[in-house]
Structure formats: structure tokens, C-alpha cells
Amino acid sequence: MCSSDLSDVNNASLVRSILQTAGFLTGGCGGQLDVVYSESDATDCEGSLRRRASLDRLTDEFNVGRETQYVLQGQAEETLPTFAATRGYDLMILGALTRQRGLSALIGTLTSRLVDELPCDFVLVKPESFVSPVVEPLLAESA
Fold it and tell me: What pLDDT, in 10s, does the model give residues 111-120?
């Protein structure tokens, strides 16, 4: 799971969607759910504590044990591939925060890096508010 600020309301909604998706998949497949968060700004101690508390609240909400939470230090594109390889993950479920338009909105910069680097498959969960820039013109034409 990746997010820039877990205490942000919009990101908390996305994290809930990620945890719900992960719960369905692990429950259906009999797998184990680990929650992984990559903390990119280790110098912001107050913000880091706030994000960690938010992560704890969200995982408590979904009954995910804290013993299966991992907080990595560094940029997700650098920390996740190595961590996933050492844990032997089959699948990672990631949040997709789109801040760009065009093709980058479909496959973001972090995602494109992880496609090449992750040693496992992954599922991207988009925010509920996401509207594909490819579908948007088609919807306008049919109106």
C-alpha cells in the first residue's frame, strides 16, 4: 500500500478501498494480508507519527493485526521492490493517486517504475472519484 499522506481524508478513503480489496482477495484465496506503507519523509517526525496513527486506525477498522504492518523508510519505488522480494509476495495491492493528465494519468510515474521493478503481480486501486481521461470524452459525446 502506498500513499503520500494517510491522514488526508481523500487518501484515507483510498486506503479503505485498498484494505477492502485486499481483504476480499486474501479471504477468497486463503492468503495472508500484510500492510506495507513507505514513509518518504523521515525528517517530518510529527507528520510521520500522525500518518502512523492514521494507519493504525485504518488497519484496526479492518481487523488487520499490527504484527503484519510494515513501515518502510524511503521512496516507495525504491523500498517496495526489495521488500516484496524478501517477503516472497505473490501479489501487491497498491493505491493509485493520479495527479497528472494524459497517459500518465492512466499509468502514473510511480506505477510505471513499479511495473519494471516489482517481483510480483500487483493490482491498482483507483480512488472512487477517478474518471478515466479515455472514457470522459466518450461520456460527453453520448450526452
Answer: 777 888 888 9
